[in-house]
Design brief:
mainly alpha; 7 helices
């Protein structure tokens, strides 16, 4: 899946809480699969921010407490993020060998919620968010290229 400029604008607006921009991007996206490229962009941004947050030292307890805090930020809807999916996705991003949760929707919801909290915690300004998105886009492109080569 190709990450387009629309995906970049959407995720940047989502991180900044700019709902109007998000709605405009969604209405401009081609149907039916216009936002598919958002998935690899979110995943790579998630991995980058998790690695920056937890760096080289972390405990499983810290991950569990962090996920509990993420779920507490969801305005009365903590069920929106599966704690097992969020914890295992964080641990996988940190290089731990843990099973992948089977529910892709739960993984995506975990990526987005964790990413939002980390961007807020890290107090990223607009320039830092653009840098994060550009790096995530590059990583998504490299991952897609690697997958394409392995299938050829």
């Amino acid at each position: 899946m190709t990450v387009s400029d629309l995906h970049m604008v959407f995720l940047g607006a989502q991180m900044a809480g700019e709902e109007g921009v998000m709605r405009r991007v969604l209405s401009a996206a081609p149907r039916p699969h216009g936002m598919d490229g958002l998935v690899p962009l979110v995943h790579e941004a998630f991995v980058l921010t998790v690695q920056k947050k937890f760096a080289s030292q972390f405990t499983h307890g810290e991950v569990v407490r962090f996920v509990a805090r993420v779920r507490a930020t969801l305005s009365g809807h903590p069920e929106a993020v599966d704690p097992v999916a969020a914890e295992s996705e964080i641990l996988r991003a940190l290089g731990q060998d843990v099973p992948t949760p089977p529910d892709a929707t739960a993984r995506s919801a975990a990526h987005m919620a964790v990413l939002n909290v980390l961007v807020h915690d890290m107090e990223l300004d607009e320039e830092a968010i653009v840098d994060l998105l550009n790096e995530a886009r590059q990583r998504a492109w490299h991952r897609a290229e690697k997958i394409a080569r392995s299938r050829a």
